Amino acid sequence: MILGIDLRSLPSDGSSGAGIAHASRAITRALVDAVPSGWTIKAYIPSGASIDVVGDSVELAGSRRGDLIDGLRRSPCDLLFVPSGAVPLNLPVPAIPWVHDLDIFEHPEWFPQSWLTRMRTTWMFRRGIEKAPMVFCVSEYTRRQIGARSEERSPFASRRLEASGDREARRIVVTGEGGDEGLIDVTEEERRKSKMRLTAYGIKENYLLMLGTVEPRKNLPFALSVLLPTTDYRLPTSFVIAGSDGWHINSINRAIELASKQHHIIRLRGVSDRLRRDLLISASLVLVPSLSEGFGLVALEAMQAGVPVIASNRGALPEVAGESILPLSDPSAWTKTIDRILSNNTFRQDWIEKQKRHVSRYSWKSAAEVVWRELNRS
Fold first, then answer.
1. What pTM does this model have?
2. Any residues with CB less than 8 A from the CB of 130 and at least 6 apart, and which?
3. DSSP assignment of 71-112, as one string?
4. How many angstroms from the chain centroid is the CA of residue 136?
């Protein structure tokens, strides 16, 4: 049996890309490392995309649906795994999505699409889930989202997903994600070298970090609102915002500009894999105040690096961050906790210790094992 992997989620300009691109690379590598007897892997990769895949690969002319179909016809597979979660219509092979979240259904205002485009996109997304022989998802939160949506009657769906019973339990399977497990054993020497490299970006002191595409769901204005003025902290502290500009960026940029009057803000847009790792290793504190997350990869990676994280109690973040969450309804709790983590070393170490209990639950190896186990059962 040949398992194809649709890697059109990778940027065709060779850049690292955002969260789904990182996750797509990682799950692909883990699947390749754990291929069971009787299976081979074939990756369908858009021209110019960056990934080191061991085994067979098919270069696509681009990232469009037609490019994928052309690749599948030139070099067929038996089953297609879609890490982006978005299965194109009318593929010549059964396709299994790996769903990250369904927030576009619940919060269309967070996304830049027109009403017509959104209806078309969500209809196609739902059709892909309904027609799939099974569905993988990254968290229990996302599994519940799929279940809730399957109960709704939709004029755009030909049939509904089974919302309860054994059939749904078999069809919708949680894999988890794995973060960057190399961060778990980071040495002090590696941290020192990372801090030296960061000086090239103007980062020369302790800093708080928000990492990821800057768009409404990440809730950056909230993070800015709960910071104390720089002069109120015991140590000089910068706030680093690292990630490309996303949609609805103008209002977010205005919030950053206003906050810059009280805080030392460093804005980094081009974030390579090396820079991403350096930022996580050397941060004093990572903030994840998202309005929703299908998983929470940044939170997990910071925890793996032994860096304190404060995350919101939304989406899948309680699953991933455990006790390191605070409600968005209590901004003062965020301000007080930030101050204590930065100024009280005992409190900081206790916060880090309770994070360690959650890190061991997640690995790309275990995520890949879930996928292979379920494929072998089907």
1. 0.89
2. 157, 158, 159, 160, 161
3. HHHHS--SEEEETTS-PPSS-SS-EEEEE---HHHH-GGGS-
4. 15
- Please calculate the CA angle 268-273-277 and round it to the nearest 5 degrees: 80
Give mean pLDDT, residues 145-152.
74
Structural domain tally of the chain?
Answer: 2
Shared domain check, 242 and 165? no
* Least confident stretch, 86-90, 96-100, 156-160: 156-160
Partner residues linked to 135 by β-bridges: 172
What sign does the CA torsion over 247, 50, 23, 265 have? negative
What's the CATH number where 136 sits?
Answer: 3.40.50.2000
Q: How confident is the model at residue 270 (pLDDT cuts 50, 70, 90)?
A: confident
- Structural domain harbouring 333: 181-359
Contact 222, 328 (CB under 8 A): yes
Domain co-membership, 11 together with 135: yes
- pLDDT over 50 (residue 59): yes
- Asked if pLDDT for residue 67 goes beyond 70, the answer is yes
What is the per-residue pLDDT across 326-358, written as a single tens digit (0 to 9) for each? 999 999 999 999 999 999 999 999 999 999 888
CA distance 279 to 24: 21
Give counts: helices (H), strands (E), the chain: 15, 13
Q: Is 65 left (phi over 0), alpha (psi -120 to 50) or beta?
A: alpha
Q: What is the mean pLDDT of residues 92-99?
A: 96
Instruction: Please indicate, yes or no, whether residues 282 and 137 belong to a single structural domain of this protein.
Output: no
Question: 60 pairs with which residues across the strands?
Answer: 46
Q: How many CB atoms lie within 10 A of CB 108?
A: 15
Residues 150 and 193 occupy one common structural domain: no
First to last CA, the chain: 12
For residues 354 and 370, membership in a common domain is answered with: no
Note whether 323 and 359 are within 8 A (CB). no
Average pLDDT over residues 123-151: 88
Answer yes or no: is pLDDT of 123 > 60. Answer: yes
* Alpha-carbon torsion (231, 232, 235, 236), positive or negative: negative
Banded pLDDT at 160 (limits 50, 70, 90): very low
- CB of 172 closer than 8 Å to CB of 145: no
